[in-house]
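**Backbone description:**
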Amino acid sequence: MLKNIKSVYFIKLLFSFVQEKNKLKIVKYNKSLQKNININIINYKFISGRYIIYGSNGNGKEYNGENDQLIFEGEYLNGERNGIGKEYYYDGELKFEGEYLNGKKNGKGKKFIIGKLFFEGEYLNNEKWIGKGYDEYGHETYEMKKNDGMNKEYSMDAYIIFEGEFLNGKRNGKGKEYYDRSSYIKFEGDYINGERNGKGKEYYYHGELKFEGEYLNNKKWEGKGYDKLNNIIYELNQGNGFVKEYNKYGELKFEGEYMVGLRNGKGKEYDDGKLEFEGEYINGERNGKGKEYDEDGNLKFEGEYINGLRNGKGKEYDEDGNLKFEGEYLYDYKYKGKYYINNKLEYEGEYLYNKKWNGKGYDEYGNIIYELNNGIEGEYLNGEKI
C-alpha cells in the first residue's frame, strides 16, 4: 500500500482489482509491496495477469498479479513500455536493461542470465539485431550483424540449448540443439525460418542415433528411426504416408499409414513375423473396421473398434473357420448377439462381461432348452417352460 492509503487513485485501484482480478493479493495489506511502490499513482492497467502502476512523469512499475513480484520498472507512455527500463526474472534477477518502444525492446540493450551478461547490442521489435554474445565466463561467443550469422542460445540457467546460423532473427542454415542442462546433442541438421527443414539427425540422450532423414516444417518426413542398439524400428515415407516399424530384433512390427507421427489410416500389425491384425487406425489406435488372426494365420475376429477396443458389430470364428459368435461388443466385451456350435445356434441374447446373461439357449434341432434371466437359468421341455 502507499503511504497515503486514502489516496483516491489507490482506492480506485483496490476496487478495480476486486472486480477484475479477484485473485490478486493487493486487496490485502501487503507490507513488502507497500515498501516497493514509491511513485505517485496516476494510472494503472491490467494486462494478462500483470498490473502496471505509473505516475505523471511516465515512470512506472509492473508486477505479477499472482504474487506481486516486480517484473519491470522504467518509463511508460499510454500504458506501454517506452524509454529506458529494466526487466526481471521471477526470482528477482535482472533479465534485461535497455530501451523500449511501443512495448517492445527497440534500441540499445543488455541481456543477463543468472547475473551474467550474455548479449549486448541493439534490438529490433524484441529481437536481437546487432551486437555480441558472451558465454558464462565473459568470453565473446558470436557477433551479430543485422541479426544474421552464427549465434548461440542459452537457457535461463546459462546452459547452451542451440548453436548455428541465423537469418532475420531466426534459425536458418546449419545448427545443433542440445538436451537441457547437458552437452549432449539432441538434433543436428538444417533449419528454415526457425524450424527443422531438410536433412537432420536426432540422438538419444547419450548420443545413440535415434532418427536420420529429412524434415518438413519441424516434422519428420522421410527417413529411419532406430532403437539404442541401432536396430531400425520404423521407416517414414513423406511423413504422413507409409511407415514401417520394427521391434528390437529388427522384425517387422507394423506397416501402414501415418499422419502427424501416429498411426492413421490403414495398417497391419505383426507378432513374431506373423500377421496379427489388419484394419483402420485413428490417432495411433485401432478405430474403425479390422480383422484379427491367430498364430496360424486363421481369421478369429472381424468387426468394429473404438480406441483400440472391440466396440460395435463383430464376428468371432473358431480355428476351423466356423462362425462362433456374431453380434455387438462394448468396451471389448460381448454385449448382445448369437453364439454358435458347429454352425448351429446355441444361444441368443445379452451378455455381461462375456457371460451369457439374458437370453435363450437352443438344442441342435433349434428347440429352446433354457432361458436366462440375469444369469439365472430356467429350463424348457419340448419347447415349453418347466
Remarks:
- Confidence is low (pLDDT under 50) at residues 1-31.
